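[recover] target loaded
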C-alpha cells in the first residue's frame, strides 16, 4: 500500500522559512519522480515542484528561488525547503507521486 506522510507545516510569519518532509513507503521511491503540490483555501490544486529520480528539479514560477525540493532515497523521504514565505503561500501542501496518489497534506499558514 502506497503511503505518503507529510509533516513540518505550521504557522510562520511573512519572510519566514519552513522545511516540509514527506515519508514514503509502499513503492519504489528511488525510481519515482516526486512532486510537491499545494491547495490554497478556496482554490484548486497548484503544482509547486518536481524532482526526478536522477535528481533534476523543476519549479513553478510562483515559487522559483524561494523553494528547494530534495530527496533522500535511503530514507525514502522527500523535502521542500521554503523561505521568504508570503501570505499567499498559505495552503495545504501535499507530496505526490508523479501521475499517482498524494498524501494527506500538511498545512502552512503565513501570517503575522
Amino acid at each position: 500500500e502506497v503511503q505518503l506522510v507529510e509533516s513540518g507545516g505550521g504557522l510562520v510569519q511573512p519572510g519566514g522559512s519552513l522545511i516540509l518532509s514527506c515519508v514514503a513507503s509502499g513503492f519504489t521511491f528511488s525510481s519515482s519522480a516526486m512532486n510537491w503540490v499545494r491547495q490554497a483555501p478556496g482554490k484548486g490544486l497548484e503544482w509547486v515542484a518536481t524532482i526526478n529520480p536522477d535528481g533534476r528539479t523543476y519549479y513553478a514560477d510562483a515559487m522559483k528561488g524561494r523553494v528547494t525540493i530534495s530527496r533522500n532515497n535511503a530514507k525514502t523521504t522527500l523535502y521542500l525547503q521554503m523561505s521568504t514565505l508570503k501570505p499567499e503561500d498559505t495552503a495545504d501542501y501535499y507530496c505526490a507521486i508523479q501521475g499517482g496518489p498524494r498524501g494527506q497534506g500538511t498545512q502552512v499558514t503565513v501570517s503575522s
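[recover] notes: The mean pLDDT is 97.
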